[in-house]
Amino acid sequence: MRELNLYRRRLRIVRGKGVYIWDDEGRRYLDAIAGIGVAVLGHTHEEFSSAMREQMDKLVVAGPMFNHEEKDQAIEELSRFSKFEHVYFCNSGTEAVEAALKFARLETGKKEVVAMTGAFHGRTFGSLSATWRRRYREGFEPLVPGFRHIPFNDVEAAKEGITGETAAVILEPIQGEGGVIPAREEFVRTLRDVTEDKGVLLIADEVQSGLRTGKFMALEHYGVQADIVAMGKGIANGVPIGLTLLNFDVPRSKHGSTFGGNPLSCRALATTLRILRRDGLMEKALDKWIDVQGRDVILTRGRGLMIGVLLRKDAWSYVLKLQQRGLLVNTAGRRVIRLLPPLIITKEQMSWIKGLMEDVLQEDEERRS
User: Fold this and answer.
1) 37 within domain boundaries
2) Where residue 345 sits, what CATH number does that domain have?
3) Helix axis angle, 263-279 relative to 46-56, nearest 10°?
């Protein structure tokens, strides 16, 4: 049996420590992919690993209908960062988005969901219906009905495209897969004003942007409060978890997840948030931003440790060249190199990344000249 070949990277990873991983030939790489933004504490973080070993010997599963100490700890840590009244636990970011969409329809009694051009919200049918790019959607139609897309960062489109028949608007404060594109402040504030005026719920998809931009949620930079928030990825440092935050109740048995809120994932979440809070790692992300320069670079965008380098040409060849030089990065669209390193990364290591990227870009320019 072989794994479905859905990805292009040919690298066999055998171990990791901190911001580094090693392949099966002993080569070391600085990991600025971090499991696509997941390993916020880096690899084999001693305190985190110790907590996981301890939990494995104590209790791993309990069923979502039961309370336990680890769930209490997770909720207590979440409450330090967020004032939402309720949290729903699941297993991934796309499941958190699915729950948000279902809860919005249930609460409003309306069906229409407005999403953005360029958006990526996941690969299950509901979240895929809110996702924009054709290559993700192609071959899976018909998708869930009732979804429309309006132009991202277009204020007038927001005013015209949201109506009283809309149940929810879903927004990434920084579009990740779409190219690491931040939402404009005027656009976000317009969305909030229009949704409040028309009785529409605002959903923030913070699956990728959460924790990375100097605050718990990227939406906090705009001074705006969403009605529902979906989170996942790095919030439990690699142990699968997703969560949906909301301020209204949902009738019992309307939604559920077999593994949601299990003791192991809840312990992982509580431990991750405690370390991030104690060490100020979220706030320090802002100081680690880098601005990559070069003739083939149009601009560097994002915030904190969610960084996209927009190039004038295809980014994939540079990704492979950087891998050969000991740096793992990924793409976000055809012409964007994306960096989502662990939050424990140092300024010096980020400076090394900047220098290496600029060297590789310069070498390519010199070969062509």
Assistant:
1) no
2) 3.90.1150.10
3) 160
